[in-house]
Amino acid sequence: MAYRRLLQQAIDEIWDNTVWKEKRVKHWYSVGKGKYKYYETTRLIPYFPKSSEFKRELRNKLLQNWSFAKHYVDSAIKTAYSILESWRQNYLKGRRKRKKPVVKRKFVRVKTTLMKVEGSKIRITIKPREEYLELDFSGEWFYERVKGWKVGELVIRDKDVYLAFSEEVEFSGKIKIGIDSNLLSLDVYHPEKGWVKVDLSELHRISETYDRVIDRLKSIQRKAPKRIGMLLKKYWVRRRNRIEDFLNKLSVQLSREFPDTIFVFEDLNKFKMLENGSKRFNRKLSRATWGKIVRKLSYRVPIEFVNPAGTSSTCPKCGNKLESRNGLVVCKCGFKSDRQFLGAFNVFVRGLGVALSGGEARDLLPNEPGGELRLMSPKSVVSVDLNGRTLTPTPP
């Protein structure tokens, strides 16, 4: 109860010092037959105080009547900002009203500075040198699996405790692979395995299938707002869960397929791509989940980013700009390649710290005699196995 009151007080203080600014925003709704009505409104956008001075004053104010360990105050401030940021995102999407969040659940977020771990036993400081809480997870089903792992922050609730574990993995960092992100595939260049294409067509099929259902429901929502609203919520949840399941399995299977490897991605900005595309292309692009793929992979493997400029249009042999012809790229110097292979290869080269301005022929491909780049097909095409643990070959 004391932590909940502390957390609510932190939220109240941040809320009272929030600055609201007016901003003109555009909205639209369907009027049928593929036509839309557009209108503008003025919205109040919240900006939370985040200066070091404000946080210091907030901490001092919360400590005035706090009789427990001081680190709980730091935890409450961090949690308060997390709650308010979540509320802000939902408010901007129209899912929340301009109403201050209220903490109803009883819980305590415990920082690692308040914990002492010895084997399977955790001692949590309530009041320094006075009161402690001891936990022992040696009898839990997961004990053998996480034995020796590092224990992170934990959350204590009324009837249960959430534990977070992490394991340090040794990594040599000898191999880098380049990944070109496309709408229907991830094209991987590995210096030993060559070009591997990861098929993402199933992911887009899932998105398109649910988008058609959702678009149809939106077009008739005015006829039965409450009922259709419930159906929309159901299909949105299903769509999200199926995509999350696919991405989780993709990240696991990619990390198993390329172990002990640094994954090099392009630092893409999807919103800039939306500016010059057609409506149909933009809809497909909006379904791309490149950011989520990278984020989920980052929990398992090291990630690096490179500048995406010119990776699919620069000749790695002479540095000139390439001409695109039906998925192939051709250079004046005689170089020919598949566009997607070239993108993955150039990302790989840029990940090694080499500029895409041409270079010695022998330095282009270390696994091919003479370093010659030639027209080729993927050495393997693989897809995510939704029932397994490794990527599966796609039949030709």
TrEMBL record:
<feature type="domain" description="Cas12f1-like TNB">
    <location>
        <begin position="298"/>
        <end position="347"/>
    </location>
</feature>
<dbReference type="GO" id="GO:0006310">
    <property type="term" value="P:DNA recombination"/>
</dbReference>
<protein>
    <submittedName>
        <fullName>Transposase</fullName>
    </submittedName>
</protein>
<keyword id="KW-0233">DNA recombination</keyword>
<dbReference type="Pfam" id="PF07282">
    <property type="entry name" value="Cas12f1-like_TNB"/>
</dbReference>
<keyword id="KW-0815">Transposition</keyword>
<feature type="domain" description="Probable transposase IS891/IS1136/IS1341">
    <location>
        <begin position="173"/>
        <end position="275"/>
    </location>
</feature>
<dbReference type="GO" id="GO:0003677">
    <property type="term" value="F:DNA binding"/>
</dbReference>
<keyword id="KW-0238">DNA-binding</keyword>
<comment type="similarity">
    <text>In the C-terminal section; belongs to the transposase 35 family.</text>
</comment>
<dbReference type="GO" id="GO:0032196">
    <property type="term" value="P:transposition"/>
</dbReference>
<dbReference type="InterPro" id="IPR001959">
    <property type="entry name" value="Transposase"/>
</dbReference>
<dbReference type="InterPro" id="IPR010095">
    <property type="entry name" value="Cas12f1-like_TNB"/>
</dbReference>
<dbReference type="Pfam" id="PF01385">
    <property type="entry name" value="OrfB_IS605"/>
</dbReference>
